[in-house]
Design brief:
66% strand; 289 residues; 3 helices; Lipocalin; mainly beta
């Protein structure tokens, strides 16, 4: 896959990670006090340019846990996308709406953005200096699927406000291969991490979510301000996302918008995915039919 194709695949895939249904629903919200009769639908291709940060806990080869930290900007990962797929849609009938999306992205991250941070066999964590890490690379496959129902609680010439309730799934699988200049030993000289090896994380989490979404119309113009916020928990103690932007109605069936979105998962001190977040600017084209 050439560089340009990788950029397109990742940008549109990442944007669909819980963002496409929310924003498509925002952009398709009724611009007038009364919604159109019958069902209406919306799809929204995105260009999302997020920074990515994650803290992963894998079972070490000697037991215990080994932490891997990932911090990547757009320039760090854009040439390392292996595959991407997204699908999102919104259906609305009067005050009711149904939102769903599916996102899959597969990346290979190098030592510059992925490194081991610590190993813990029980008594306490032992830091792994980056100076000892000759080579560290992480290949990850991530799937995020969201499904939610919405209800318009307020609407008028000023815009609308919807409440939403639903679920979000995060499935994360990664393999980190590492090479150290020396093995890591505990203070009592017990081997805790051999010089070379592989670490694997494979977890699937389901969370319930609730929130609000809507738009504020700018009087006497085709511009409006879309917004979205949700929070939830379940398989992971906390997940949340926010979005705010400015949009322009090009026609009755299409809008263009630019905004900022933050999507975060937090898992306390347990294993697997401890934290994962994507945040950055989004440019979107929303089509209604």
């Amino acid at each position: 896959m050439r560089y340009g194709l990788k950029l397109t695949a990742f940008a549109f895939t990442a944007a669909a990670a819980a963002a496409l249904p929310a924003h498509a629903q925002i952009a398709s919200a009724p611009p007038t006090p009364e919604a159109a009769p019958g069902w209406s639908f919306a799809v929204a291709p995105y260009l999302w340019i997020p920074t990515i940060s994650a803290d992963l806990h894998a079972t070490g080869p000697r037991g215990g846990t080994v932490s891997t930290s990932i911090n990547a900007g757009i320039g760090d990962y854009i040439s390392d996308i292996n595959a991407g797929l997204m699908l999102g849609a919104v259906a609305r009938h009067d005050r009711l709406s149904v939102l769903t999306d599916f996102m899959y992205v597969n990346t290979s991250l190098t030592s510059s953005v992925s490194h081991l941070s610590s190993v813990n066999l029980g008594p306490g964590p032992i830091d792994i200096p980056r100076s000892l890490q000759l080579s560290t690379g992480t290949r990850s496959a991530m799937t995020i699927w969201s499904l939610a129902g919405g209800y318009t609680i307020l609407r008028g010439g000023w815009g609308n406000l919807d409440s939403i309730v639903g679920m979000r799934m995060l499935a994360f699988n990664s393999t980190t291969n590492y090479l150290l200049s020396t093995s890591i030993f505990a203070p009592n000289h017990t081997l805790v991490l051999p010089r070379t090896g592989s670490l694997n994380v494979g977890q699937t989490y389901f969370n319930a979510i609730g929130g609000i979404t809507g738009r504020i119309n700018i009087p006497n113009s085709r511009f409006y301000l879309p917004f979205y916020a949700d929070i939830g928990g379940g398989g992971l103690p906390l997940t949340w996302q926010i979005y705010a932007g400015i949009a322009y109605s090009v026609a009755s069936w299409a809008d263009l918008s630019v905004g900022y979105r933050n999507l975060t998962f937090q898992n306390g001190n347990t294993g697997g995915v401890r934290t994962f977040s994507q945040r950055g600017a989004i440019v979107a084209a929303n089509f209604r039919f």
